[in-house]
Design a protein that fits this description.
The complex is a heterodimer. By secondary structure, chain A is mostly beta strands. Chain A has one domain: TolB, C-terminal domain (Neuraminidase, 6 Propeller). Chain A is built from 2 helices and 24 strands. In chain A, the strands form 6 sheets. Chain A has a 4-stranded antiparallel beta sheet with strand order 1-24-23-22, with no helix packed on it. A 4-stranded antiparallel beta sheet of chain A has the order 2-3-4-5, with no helix packed on it. Chain A starts with a helix and ends with a strand. The chains are: A mainly beta, B mainly alpha.
Chain lengths: ~400, ~140
């Protein structure tokens, strides 16, 4: 007994050392070093689930497997049982289809299964009596229900003002925080100074009740001259907006100037700095601001240099992509790829390009089935990314 | 005497007509610069150099300058699929910016007379843009 234990003691360090070595080798092959996830692009496959779309912008994945897709030209299309319905869904209002404008985002209410509400954003032409340029437009939000191939119960909820004649920067992303509020991102319509002007909706994220009413606890409700719908300001052209799955806080990305695309955490009343601070320069190479940081102005989580022209984004929450859980998948219009951002707390610790040259990515979402759906503007497709096995 | 009158009237005629045409081109280029800085600059860049292998250049671009109709078509209808510019292949998509024919003529005149490009005083007009159709 005694003898046995002394032998055990003698060989214990060796045994432990061996175990440690084996374990570390195992860990290394499993994890490939710190911060690297072992799920790779090569473990995933891409399947086309819809084709034949013209300049698709966004998708809503319905619980029955059907997909609603907005086409920027002004049509809402239904993909039913894998086939694009030849007849567009009726009930879309007149959209201002010019420049970057048109029919934009679509999002299902978090309780869609019970209430059927579908939210849609679009560039809305100036109506009589509305503030702003004649012949101009700005981003609007509506909601409706789908009955067969028709939108019913159509309600106009919000229109950003003033109308502006320029062709660019409509923003347009819709997101719900599951506490009864809906958020809409708004571009500065090519007038950067107005991002800082609280009396205009340009360059803002706005918060509304789900029926379009303005919450009285919005941050600028009591500020003289300020628009009460404003939640945050100092944005340029935000075209990606999602809710963090555990913190419930908004993460947003926006097209910046040259070399200044940003990923931001968007919180009540904060100023995200455009155009007072930026990591980019203007496209004619002129300096917009010599500052990249200033007191009272928020810093991005990351910025992209060169710009990737980010569009669409989702947090991964599905068990199908276990190693990527909590991470972000971001689309790039410019480089026609996806980027997988490893997220730790409020930081991005790693960026990797996946599915390079997949297409001009407009929209990235996780479906009810846990797979990731991507809208490709150039090929007019919706594709599904899922694990190979 | 007759010759002198002819010459003089010729000079007067030329000074009346050609500067006007040059003037119109200059004005169109000026307007085109505004159209460019709003609709084109973020991809094709401030000096028309584009982004190699991602967005094609417009400065000294064979695709564009050797056949301006290529440019009109791209701006009028958008462009999709593979093209080769100065020996480099591009396979991105340019959505139609939805400009009016007058704006297209202006931006064409600006591009064709900037960053080392020259249209040799030839001007793209609204009518020429109107005449360009989507299918060859």
């Amino acid at each position: 007994m005694n003898k046995n234990s002394s032998v055990f003691k003698k060989y214990l360090p060796l045994a432990l050392g061996g175990m440690l070595l084996t374990a570390s080798v195992g860990l290394m092959s499993y994890n490939n070093g710190p911060g690297k996830s072992f799920l790779a692009e090569s473990d995933l496959k891409v399947d086309t689930v819809a084709t034949g779309l013209t300049m698709p912008w966004a998708s809503a994945l319905l619980p029955n497997g059907d997909i609603l897709v907005t086409e920027r030209g002004g049509k809402l299309r239904l993909v039913s049982q894998g086939k694009l319905d030849a007849t567009p869904v009726a009930g879309i209002p007149e959209v201002w289809y010019k420049g970057q404008g048109g029919l934009l985002d679509i999002a299902l209410h978090p309780d869609y299964k019970t209430n059927g509400w579908i939210y849609i954003s679009y560039s809305s032409p100036k109506k009589d009596g509305e503030e702003g340029d004649d012949g101009g437009a700005n981003t609007a939000l509506m909601r409706a229900k789908l009955k067969g191939k028709e939108l019913t119960d159509i309600q106009q909820l919000f229109k950003a003002l003033p109308n502006v004649k320029g062709n660019v920067h409509f923003g347009g992303r819709i997101v719900f925080d599951k506490k009864g509020y809906v958020f809409l991102s708004l571009g500065e319509r090519g007038q950067k100074e107005n991002s800082q002007n609280l009396s205009k909706d340009q360059g803002k994220v706005v918060r509304l009740f789900e029926d379009g009413k303005i919450p009285t606890d919005n941050p600028f409700v009591k500020t003289a001259g300020a628009k009460p719908e404003i939640w945050t300001y100092g944005h340029r052209n935000p075209q990606g907006m999602v809710i963090h799955p555990t913190t419930g806080v908004i993460w947003e990305h926006e097209h910046g100037p040259q070399g200044g695309d940003e990923l931001n955490i968007v919180e009540k009343g904060k100023n995200y700095g455009w155009p007072l601070i930026t990591y980019g320069i203007d496209y004619d190479n002129s300096i917009i601001s010599k500052d990249t940081a200033k007191a009272g102005l928020e810093q991005p989580v990351i910025f992209w240099r060169p710009s990737i022209a980010p569009c669409g984004m989702t947090f991964v929450t599905s068990d199908k992509f276990k190693d990527w859980k909590g991470d972000l998948i971001v689309g790039s219009l410019k480089f026609m790829q996806l980027q997988h951002l490893t997220v730790k707390g409020n930081k991005v610790t790693k960026r990797e390009v996946i599915f390079d040259k997949i297409g001009r990515v407009r929209d990235v979402r996780q479906g009810w089935d846990g797979n990731i759906y991507v809208v490709l503007e150039n090929s007019g497709k919706v594709v599904r990314i899922s694990p190979k096995s | 005497m007759k010759l002198i009158v002819l010459l003089l009237s010729g000079i007067v005629f030329c000074s009346a007509v050609f500067p006007t045409q040059d003037d119109e081109l200059a004005k169109s280029i000026e307007r085109g610069k505004m159209v460019y800085s709003e609709n084109c600059i973020s991809c094709h860049m401030g000096t028309g150099e584009g982004v190699t292998a991602t967005f094609p250049p417009l400065a000294k671009s064979d695709y564009f300058m050797e056949n301006p109709e290529n440019g009109i078509k791209a701006v009028k209808f958008g462009l999709m699929g593979k093209i080769k510019v100065n020996g480099v292949e591009y396979d991105n998509m340019m959505p139609s910016p939805g400009l009016g024919n007058d704006e297209i003529a202006d931006v064409m005149n600006y591009i064709m007379n900037s960053w080392g490009n020259s249209s040799e005083k030839k001007m793209i007009t609204e009518k020429m843009v109107e005449a360009v159709e989507e299918k060859k």
